[in-house]
Write a sequence for this structure.
């Protein structure tokens, strides 16, 4: 409303005669000068136009919408006490995935969160995170996120508002409450949030007849059923890996995709350093070659469907040794499982050694089992923990019966009701059921029969586009929430900024439709006060800490109840058989929810090194029996469902099966992962089209090559390596990734330093003295799990751009710290994997420095190999001369997307302390020099030296297993110096006289003595003096 | 004199039988004949039709080069196939290739001059021009291959407000000096040698514009004894100055590789090996150019079969030198016992780039062996084909050195295959456009043969007989 038109009140002043008479000319002039607001403009706009307008206006308004505190927009002249503009602040919050909270600490610059770390005090994090949490900031600023409420009808999208939705919901839900929620259904993602569950209970009270469906693609339903048989209630194993001497993982990716992998890695690592006490021993039986498998001392590849049989055979072996009491003992002794794969000598020896090991470490052993296994296998595995006396020692079972799991029967029921037309209103509280429900249910078709389809989501995704209402969901950094971490610690989430696009949390939406409380904070606060934990002071302290210290779940004691035998199919796979396909969550995009993150799409899979795609993983022998190879397209079919998918030959994969990672092939994810409507091809292949409700974990499928090929892009082995390359690689691997068995270390602890002998190395010139600080890093290959969180942490900290599939294909990925993965072993089907993170080694005699014609890369007095971006002219000579090939070049302007209309919001994700590099400039790891500088300033103001631990580079900070240490090598007590002085420390390619500042600590494995000679394929065995 | 009287009636082989060594200039009776046949080209109103065809073609390719460079500057060096680890691809390969070609010019002009090899006179102007234009092409590539071309001037030691000097330890900086010096000296040498001939063209010019332009560049030359005296002195001095450059330029270029520590680059054999290779490729290019040119402009009496034969011998000799270098590299890789070095060479010959390696060996080592046969050395079409082979082989040599060493260096995790893009290929083709445009313009407007020097090796220049001073082979 312009002031010119507001003339009713009091006296009428006029400017001209035209004004007084309100002539048409004057009206026109007014209209021109003060055009009608957005109402007029938006009345008939397309979605694109809407997004453009929203993008432009919101980006312009972003600076002001990022508030420090809820209500304040303060001029610096009136600065709040203790507030220094440009100085980061840290807030505790948390992120929840599949009902498990991860405690986080968010770094925020002037109200703009830029970096996520783990919450150091929280028991499930201890300061580390996984890659999903690291990518949280990019998710927050994703330009593809929904930017407002949409009312949809067919293909027509009408921008609406929360106000209109409230008006709609008031009428609709008043009607529904009259019928007690008849015809109402909810699809909710799995959450352990006490505040949400409270809202849920209230909702179910208001709408008792409503159908509530918990759904997520990665279900824990089988685990709940299985554990219930042993513990009486749905239980969760909380493992203390630091206490376990012997760990058996039955296809449980403890250090990989397990919800508690961060803590597992930390605990596991404490037992992998031979000098720190007795090492543990990890046995892994699995189909896919997982990160946990790569860490194993003994790994046995077995298809998922035979794991149950393996477990029974193990029980029989344990019985034979007389170590345990099993209810079915007589039956097992009389008729022990035999034949098939169990007939192999190797397996017999393995079982024998494993049984011996478990019994030897009785009470200090641990059996873990994958959640996708059938309930009877899960029950059996956990019962074994009870029988071996591990419960209370290495594992605690917690009652999780109050935390919902994905509910397949409720989902089936819902689809049936929808098909009948008896559901009029369906709310999806953040999930994406159209995309990830079992394909045979045909959710999408049934969904269209629902009259009011309300979708709360971060994106206008596959479910969103076929809904009638799409409501923007608040990102976890934008809203109040809470959750339970894996060990039951009640973890809070506070917003670090106002919602960018007016999003609301699931709890807030529930509150809204119930006509109750709509403030997320109030819900969380209420749950907290209900627990009787104290008053305002305690509340503030809890929010500051981010969790309720000491909170936990109720523990359970198990029984040794008799259990039915699992599937005892023992025969080996024949090429004529169907193969078994296992549906696995993806380490990068999980179940597809993180698909639209460029960082995660470009993050190489830790094992396959594939970026931007998933692929069906198969053993080399299986693939060749089927006439397939890496990049072949194959058709997988179960019943009448089929998909075509590229194959990746995974060394060490079990025979006769394939692993299909979920979460790709998104048609409505966004401009990163696929948006068919905007002609953005989906990345990867959607395996949900194959996954049926008959078996969510694994199932038999027919496979046939289609004869077509597909370009899979990986960051390693960009092209298939020929014979000569493989020989050359095997020949040198032992020099690069040094390692050996425990007894080798016991005999000669510094064996790694004797792998390569060379004449004394002399310097061409007088070397630097380094009298002050002397920065250095160490990476312990014995504890590194290969999880690749360091790569994403570095990307987030150092503003590293995403380049896209084509550029990765060309070999131009930008990661400053990469995770090298090598396979060893003569039989590709039984290959073992080793991981080695490689970033700039900050050589003291840096080859790169000598060849730069313009001195753009130079040495500091503290030994850093500095890269001066604005001096670099881009000859790329430094990269050629770098033996580690850690330098990355901006072949194009990789930050052009920041300029695109609607994408300006991406600028907010950049770390203000780090330059955004231009086109034509070389870049590389700096040991996070910006963190060194801020620690220096801090120390300077306090007039003291930088202490050990004051500086933590992003990679070291995120590392779940504490494998990376950083500090001053001149300080004899610093952690990094101690690591450098460790006997296991060696300099990779040190014979080149580069004097790298990063030391690697040799990887030590602890094979069972009776099997050590049997499968000695460790990296250490490939050495050549 | 009688010896040469009936020379017109004899065939090449008969001449060989009769004369030992054969005359360096044939079918020309007088000094005037020489002047006439050289100057008439620049004075003609029209050129042979084939010149126009070639010139149009060359201009087209030059246009392609311009378009590619524009695309490059506006987009970024990512338009090429370069990647990590192969951060140097076609541009550096092309640079070394063109610098190598630029070698024969100085060698022929300076070194052969100092050794009093009279046969150089027929081809020296030609090859000097080739040198200048090849170095122009060569200089282009390092300049455009950098990521931020707009600050390329930072490689020059110019005092500046940043108080920053270039890094004098970098071989790339040595390159700047080496190639810069080479270009300057070659240009001076070429131009100075041309002054008497430019004066001839000035004197014969019929139009005002030509008189004016040739006049400016002839620097007031009047053929006086004093001028000749000074000229000979200066020429000798420049020749002496240029001679070490023959060795230095390509040695320094080879340092780009040898100083780096990448296996396959880090070898002490590189400087002599590169110099031999450069002479090899330079002579091949002289042949590639002079064979059509002598036919086109009727220079068969000046650039005789004997010249061509001698060049074939040089090619065969330097071809074996590079062959020796290839073999020695392998031997050293094995003998050093260095695993990385050993792998690089096995990988070169049998790895993913084996096709490039064997192309190189076939073209450079095997194909010139045919010149053991005299008949082959006198078969013009065959020589032309072999010269093209050598050009191709020498380009591949640089490709093999640059790309196969980088694509699989120390850490297998970084190994990657390099494939050029269309922009790479078109830029290379475009550089030939630049080269031939300049060369054809030279053919059109400047004396292609050193008139005064050719006259010097004619018998009529030595009325008192051959004193054994000029005609040594």
């Amino acid at each position: 409303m312009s002031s010119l038109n507001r003339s009713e009140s009091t006296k009428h002043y006029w400017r001209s005669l035209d004004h007084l008479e309100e002539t048409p000319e004057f009206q026109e002039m007014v209209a021109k000068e003060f055009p009608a607001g957005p109402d007029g403009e938006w009345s008939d706009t397309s979605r694109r136009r809407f997004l453009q307008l929203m993008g432009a206006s919101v980006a312009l308004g972003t600076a002001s919408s990022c508030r420090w505190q809820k209500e304040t927009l303060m001029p610096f002249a009136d600065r709040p006490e203790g507030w220094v503009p440009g100085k980061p602040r840290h807030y505790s919050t948390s992120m929840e995935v599949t009902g498990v909270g991860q405690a986080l600490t968010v770094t925020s610059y002037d109200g703009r969160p830029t970096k996520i770390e783990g919450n150091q005090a929280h028991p499930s994090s201890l300061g580390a995170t996984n890659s999903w949490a690291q990518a949280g900031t990019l998710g927050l600023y994703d330009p593809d996120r929904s930017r407002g409420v949409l009312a949809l009808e067919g293909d027509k999208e009408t921008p609406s508002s929360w106000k209109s939705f409230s008006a709609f919901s008031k009428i609709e839900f008043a009607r529904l409450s009259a019928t007690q929620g008849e015809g109402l259904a909810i699809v909710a993602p799995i959450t352990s949030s006490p505040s949400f569950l409270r809202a849920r209970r209230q909702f179910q009270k208001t709408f008792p007849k409503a159908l509530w469906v918990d759904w997520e693609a990665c279900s824990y339903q089988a685990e709940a059923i299985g554990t219930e048989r042993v513990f009486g209630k749905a239980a969760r194993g909380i493992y203390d890996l630091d206490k376990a001497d012997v760990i058996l993982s039955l296809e449980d990716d403890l250090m990989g995709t397990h919800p508690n992998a961060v803590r597992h890695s930390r605990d596991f690592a404490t037992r992998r350093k031979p000098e720190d006490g007795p090492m543990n021993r990890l046995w892994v039986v699995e189909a896919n070659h997982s990160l946990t498998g790569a860490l194993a001392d003994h790994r046995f590849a077995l298809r998922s469907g035979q794991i149950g049989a393996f477990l029974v055979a193990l029980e029989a072996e344990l019985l034979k040794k007389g170590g345990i009491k099993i209810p079915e003992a007589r039956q097992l002794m009389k008729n022990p499982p035999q034949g098939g794969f169990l007939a192999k000598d190797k397996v017999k020896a393995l079982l024998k050694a494993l049984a011996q090991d478990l019994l030897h470490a009785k009470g200090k052993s641990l059996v873990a089992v994958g959640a996708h296994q059938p309930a009877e296998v899960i029950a059996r595995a956990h019962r074994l923990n009870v029988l071996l006396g591990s419960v209370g020692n290495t594992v605690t079972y917690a009652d999780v019966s109050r935390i919902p799991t994905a509910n397949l029967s409720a989902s089936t029921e819902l689809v049936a009701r929808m098909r009948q037309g008896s559901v009029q209103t369906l709310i999806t509280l953040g999930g994406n059921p159209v995309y990830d429900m079992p394909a045979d249910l045909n959710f999408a078709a049934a969904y269209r029969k629902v009259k009011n389809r309300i979708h709360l989501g971060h994106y206008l995704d596959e479910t969103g586009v076929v809904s009638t209402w799409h409501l923007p969901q608040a990102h976890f950094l934008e809203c109040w929430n809470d959750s339970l971490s894996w060990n039951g610690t009640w973890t809070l989430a506070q917003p670090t900024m106002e919602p960018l696009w007016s999003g609301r949390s699931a709890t807030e939406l529930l509150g809204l439709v119930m006509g109750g409380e709509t403030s997320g904070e109030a819900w969380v606060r209420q749950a907290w006060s209900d627990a009787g934990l104290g008053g305002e002071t305690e509340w503030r302290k809890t929010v500051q800490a981010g969790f309720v210290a000491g909170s936990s779940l109720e523990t359970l004691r198990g029984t040794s109840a008799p259990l039915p035998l699992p599937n005892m199919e023992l025969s080996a796979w024949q090429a004529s058989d169907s193969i078994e396909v296992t549906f696995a969550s993806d380490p990068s995009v999980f179940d597809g929810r993180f698909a639209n993150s460029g960082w995660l799409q470009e993050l190489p899979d830790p094992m396959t090194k594939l970026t931007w795609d998933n692929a069906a993983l198969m053993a080399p022998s299986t693939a060749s029996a089927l006439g397939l190879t890496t990049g072949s397209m194959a058709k997988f079919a179960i019943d009448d469902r089929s998909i075509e998918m590229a194959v990746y030959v995974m060394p060490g994969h079990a025979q006769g099966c394939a692993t299909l990672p979920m979460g790709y092939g998104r048609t409505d994810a966004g401009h990163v992962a696929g948006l068919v409507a905007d002609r953005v091809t989906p990345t990867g292949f959607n395996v949900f089209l194959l996954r049926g409700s008959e078996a969510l974990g694994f199932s038999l499928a027919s496979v046939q090559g289609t004869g077509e090929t597909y370009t899979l892009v990986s960051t390693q082995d960009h092209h298939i390596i020929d014979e000569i390359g493989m020989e050359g690689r095997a020949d040198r691997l032992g020099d690069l990734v040094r390692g050996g068995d425990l007894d080798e270390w016991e005999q000669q602890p510094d064996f790694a330093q004797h792998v390569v002998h060379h004449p004394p190395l002399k310097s061409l010139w007088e070397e630097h003295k380094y009298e002050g600080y002397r920065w250095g890093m160490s990476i312990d290959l014995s504890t590194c799990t290969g999880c690749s969180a360091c790569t994403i942490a570095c990307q987030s900290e150092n503003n590293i751009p995403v380049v896209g599939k084509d550029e990765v294909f060309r070999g131009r990925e930008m990661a400053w710290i990469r995770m090298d993965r090598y396979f060893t072993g003569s039989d590709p089907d039984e290959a073992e994997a080793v991981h080695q993170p490689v970033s700039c080694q900050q050589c003291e005699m840096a080859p790169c420095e000598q060849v730069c014609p313009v001195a753009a890369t130079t040495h500091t007095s503290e030994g850093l190999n500095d890269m001066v971006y604005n001096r670099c002219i881009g000859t790329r000579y430094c990269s050629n001369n770098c033996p580690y090939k850690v330098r990355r070049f901006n072949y194009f302007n990789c930050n052009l997307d920041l300029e695109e209309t609607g994408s300006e919001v991406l600028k907010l994700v950049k770390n203000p302390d780090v330059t955004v590099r231009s086109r034509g400039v070389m870049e590389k790891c700096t040991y996070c020099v910006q963190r060194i500088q801020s620690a220096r300033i801090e120390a300077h103001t306090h007039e003291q030296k930088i202490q050990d631990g004051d500086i933590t580079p992003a990679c070291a900070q995120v590392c779940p297993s504490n494998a990376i240490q950083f500090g001053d090598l001149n300080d004899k007590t610093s952690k990094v110096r101690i690591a450098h002085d460790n006997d296991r420390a060696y300099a990779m390619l040190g014979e080149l006289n580069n004097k790298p500042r990063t030391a690697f600590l040799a990887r030590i494995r602890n094979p069972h003595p009776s099997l050590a000679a049997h499968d000695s394929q460790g990296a250490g065995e490939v050495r050549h003096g | 004199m009688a010896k040469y009287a009936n020379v017109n009636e004899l065939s090449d082989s008969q001449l060989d039988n009769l004369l030992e060594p054969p005359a360096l200039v044939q079918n020309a009776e007088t000094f005037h004949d020489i002047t006439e046949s050289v100057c008439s080209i620049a004075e003609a109103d029209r050129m042979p039709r084939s010149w126009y065809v070639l010139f149009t073609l060359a201009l087209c390719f030059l246009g392609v080069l311009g378009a590619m460079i524009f695309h490059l500057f506006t987009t970024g060096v990512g338009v090429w196939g370069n990647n990590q680890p192969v951060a140097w691809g076609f541009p550096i390969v092309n640079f070394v290739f063109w610098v190598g070609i630029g070698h024969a010019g100085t060698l022929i002009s300076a070194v052969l001059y100092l050794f009093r090899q009279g046969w150089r006179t027929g081809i020296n102007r030609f090859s000097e021009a080739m040198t200048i234009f090849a170095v122009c092409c060569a200089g282009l590539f390092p300049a455009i291959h950098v990521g931020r071309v707009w600050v390329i001037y930072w490689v020059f030691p110019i005092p500046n407000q940043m108080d920053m000097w270039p890094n004098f330890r970098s071989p790339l900086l040595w390159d700047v000096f080496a190639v810069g010096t080479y270009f300057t000296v070659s240009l001076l040498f070429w131009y100075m040698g041309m002054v008497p001939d430019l004066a001839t063209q000035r004197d014969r010019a019929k139009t005002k514009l030509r008189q004016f332009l040739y006049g400016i560049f002839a620097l007031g030359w009047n053929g006086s004894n004093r001028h000749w005296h000074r000229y000979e002195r200066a020429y000798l001095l420049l020749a002496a100055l240029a001679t070490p450059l023959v060795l230095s330029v390509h040695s320094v270029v080879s340092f780009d590789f040898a100083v780096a520590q990448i296996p396959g680059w880090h070898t002490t054999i590189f400087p002599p090996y590169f110099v031999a290779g450069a002479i090899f490729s330079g002579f091949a290019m002289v042949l590639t150019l002079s064979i059509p040119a002598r036919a086109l402009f009727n220079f068969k009496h000046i650039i005789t079969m004997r010249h061509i034969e001698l060049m074939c011998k040089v090619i065969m000799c330097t071809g074996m030198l590079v062959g020796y270098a290839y073999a020695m590299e392998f031997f050293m890789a094995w003998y050093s016992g260095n695993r990385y070095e050993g792998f690089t060479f096995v990988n070169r010959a049998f790895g993913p780039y084996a096709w490039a390696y064997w192309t190189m060996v076939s073209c450079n080592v095997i194909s010139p062996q045919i010149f053991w046969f005299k008949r082959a050395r006198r078969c013009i079409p065959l020589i032309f084909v072999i010269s093209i082979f050598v050009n191709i082989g020498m380009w591949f040599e640089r490709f093999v050195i640059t790309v196969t060493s980088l694509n699989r260096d120390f850490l297998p995790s970084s190994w990657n295959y390099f494939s050029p893009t269309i922009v790479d290929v078109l830029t290379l083709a475009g550089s030939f456009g630049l080269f031939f445009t300049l060369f054809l313009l030279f053919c059109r407007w400047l004396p292609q043969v050193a008139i005064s020097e050719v006259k010097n090796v004619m018998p009529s220049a030595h009325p008192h007989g051959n004193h054994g001073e000029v005609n040594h082979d």
Q: What stands out?
A: The two ends of chain A are 84 Å apart (CA to CA). The mean pLDDT of chain A is 87.
